[in-house]
Design brief:
Blueprint: E1 2-8, H1 20-23, H2 28-42, E2 44-50, H3 54-64, E3 70-74, H4 83-91, E4 96-100, E5 122-125, H5 130-145
Parallel strand pairs: 1-2, 1-3, 3-4, 4-5
Helix pairs in contact: 2-5, 3-4
């Protein structure tokens, strides 16, 4: 069975309260519940983590090399600013799919560039909570294709 880290960055612990027009009304726990249901269908094991701290996210990515086969990662606002997270994603040697709830290309111009995207296996944005389920399904496919 494949193991996948679902990693969420800053402010995602406020989902359901923060700007529902952009991020939807589901809480992070509710999204994680939907992912848990999907994981059973996909026959994958999930671990969930969220931090508002850049260094903690880097630590979690590095620790994942000891147990995970891949990562679904929503870096939140750090997507647009963090070279350190980019370097961590690049260095871990695991397939990572970047996720955003909102369509970052339909928002403020500073959100149009992600530092993390170029070193990810893919990026899914703008599908709300379905961005996560789409990313998990795609990552499972990528892992199944590996020798």
């Amino acid at each position: 069975m494949k193991s996948i880290l679902i990693l969420n960055g800053p402010n995602l612990n406020f989902l359901g309260k923060r700007d529902p027009a952009h991020y939807g009304s589901l809480t992070l726990d509710e999204i994680n519940g939907r992912l848990t249901d999907l994981a059973k269908q996909l026959d994958v094991e999930l671990r969930f983590a969220q931090s508002n701290k850049e260094g903690a996210l880097i630590d979690l990515l590095q620790e994942a090399t000891g147990w995970a086969d891949g990562v679904v990662f929503n870096p939140g606002g750090y997507s647009h600013t963090s070279i350190a997270l980019r370097d961590a994603v690049e260095s871990i040697g695991l397939p990572v799919i970047e996720v955003h709830l909102s369509n970052i290309y339909a928002r403020e111009e500073f959100r149009h560039t992600s530092m993390v995207s170029p070193v990810c296996a893919g990026t899914i944005a703008g599908l709300g909570w379905r961005s996560y389920t789409t990313a998990l399904t795609a990552l499972k496919g990528i892992l199944d294709d590996q020798p």
